[in-house]
Fold:
Amino acid sequence: MSELTLTELTTILRECAGQDENTDLSGADILDKEFKDLGYDSLAMLETAARIQIVHGVVLADDVVVEAATPRELIRLVNQSLGDARP
Structure:
C-alpha cells in the first residue's frame, strides 16, 4: 500500500467534511496548521480516519485520530502504521 500524501489527505478531508475544492487546503503551509483552525472537528476527523482505513487498510484508534492536531501528525501516524504492517 502506498503512503498517504498531503494531496490525498486534503482530498479525503474535503470529501468527509462536504467541502468543495475552493476550500483553501492548498500548499505545504497547512501541514502544521491545527485541524480546528482549518475548520475540522472531531467528527470530521473520525470520518477521515474511517476513509483512510477503507483506502489504506490502516486502523487508528479514535483517541489517536482526535489527538493528531495537524495534517503532518496524521500523515505521520498513518504512514508509520503502513510501515509497521509491511513484512
Notes: The chain has a mean pLDDT of 85. The helical segments are 6-17, 35-38, 42-56, 62-67, 71-85. Residues 6-19+28-85 form a domain with the Non-ribosomal Peptide Synthetase Peptidyl Carrier Protein; Chain A fold (CATH 1.10.1200.10).
